[in-house]
Amino acid sequence: MSERAIDTAADIIVCGLGPAGRALAHRCLAHGMSVTAIDPLPDRQWSATYAGWADELPRWLDPAAVAATVDQPTAWGTRPHRLDRPYVVFDSQRLRAALDLDGARVLADRVVELRRETVTLASGAVLRSERVIDARGVARSPELAEQTAYGVIIGRGADLEPLFMDWRADNGALPTQPRSFLYAVPLGGASMLLEETCLAGRPAIDTTILRDRLHHRLRSRGIELTGTEPIERVRFPVQGGRPGRRTFGAAGAFTHPATGYSVTAALTAADAVALGSSAWPAQARAVHALRAAGLRALLALPPADIPVFFDAFFTMPPERQRAYVSGRTDLGGTVAAMRTLFTALPPELRRRVATATLGMPIRSRIRMGSAIME
């Protein structure tokens, strides 16, 4: 390394330009910092659909990034639940444009080595900065639970209300098979995303199986597809990130292991992290550990118990739901939510959740291939 010229031009180097990395680089620029951003394909368009809760959005974000808002989304376990919390779906391209990088030095290159203050690129260049942030996400691994989904985009002619999640058993899956749910949200204009989703599986349900389930579910509800609809496939780890000052977004363990959401958490934290604050105070680390325990419980539940579990979750007071889903640093709220949920479960389900949460083996551990989707 000593024989190479080392570039020391930037206040901060951000590796990875997905939503999290781009948000952090954008806020660093807003605060007058010099920024070098590195991504193999920095100009690529975002094809995934991102969503979250309206009350999580930072004030600095351009409202035009939101494509649609559902004031009271519906969730189904064995019965419907109306969620008293506005839910937003982003226009992915407008969100990307809102996180503009005007003034940044953007390099189309691949990081091959990342150390505390230096980054080595595939081109051979070596960059140095006192702040190097890894926002490249998490690589897939058989050891990591994943979220998968298969979706189609249709016109709004179908008589289908927005659904945050719908666990009803009309997708053709056998009762003993891992569960998946329908996620149905407006995308703005006349389009709607209908997605069969597996929250957390190790392994997760394959997208070809989710495709067949989605087609079966839609036919059972009188919705016929033409075969020409745009398709969205989803697959990413819901665990595996490393909390710390030098990681951000999914790479920094921002992904909620029980929902898969990370984008709004990254948007919310971008300003503070840009200014040098830690996104991981002691309360956040404790909440992260509790959420990991919650994932173990979800992975252990038999398929028949999944809708019952979510009935109990969505029956909780809204502030308890909000604390568990969104409170990254709300340790008291997270503990209260988990306690409330646990006491609301039927006794046998409570036993399974307790043993799995504590990491103890249970006799009939069945991998759950189901999911909530942000």
Profile the largest sheet: 7 strands, mixed
Overall 3D form: globular
Percent helix: 25-40%
The order of strands across the largest sheet is 7-6-15-16-17-14-18
User: How many beta strands in the DSSP annotation?
Assistant: 18
Q: Report how far the terminal alpha carbons are from each other.
A: 42 Å
Low-confidence stretches: 360-374
The proportion of residues in beta strands is 15-25%
Overview of the structural elements:
This protein is α/β, with parallel strands linked by helices and 374 residues long. Helix content is 29%, strand content 24%. The chain contains nine helices and 18 strands. Strands 7-6-15-16-17-14-18 form a seven-stranded mixed beta sheet. It has a four-stranded mixed beta sheet with strand order 1-12-11-10, with no helix packed on it. A four-stranded parallel beta sheet has the order 9-3-2-13, covered by helices on one side. Strand 2 (12-15), helix 1 (19-30) and strand 3 (35-39) form a beta-alpha-beta unit. Helix 5 (282-300) crosses helix 9 and helix 7 (318-326) crosses helix 8. The longest helix has 19 residues, at 282-300.
